[in-house]
Amino acid sequence: MMETFIFLGKYSPEAVRDISSDRTSNTITLIKEIGGEVVSMYALLGGYDLVLIVKLPSATTAMKASLALTMLTGISFQTHPALAVDDLDRIIGEARE
Prior knowledge:
46% of the residues lie in helices and 30% in strands. By secondary structure, it is α+β, with helices and mostly antiparallel strands.
């Protein structure tokens, strides 16, 4: 079963200079090579520059992906597990039984 992770990225000055569609393609390829799937990617305004929504098999794989993406792109990532609200509601319902 794949788990969802949110990658919040901040560009370094060097990473800004290297923005390209090739780097985006390399990011998607890297995630696929470690057994994951990029669901979506967005550029942001504010405290973070990027958000990637990624499906990966485990937290260990997410850590590997985060480090590998930083080494590949020069972008610093914070990586967070994410749970669908429907799943949270179900879990809470089960805990109350």
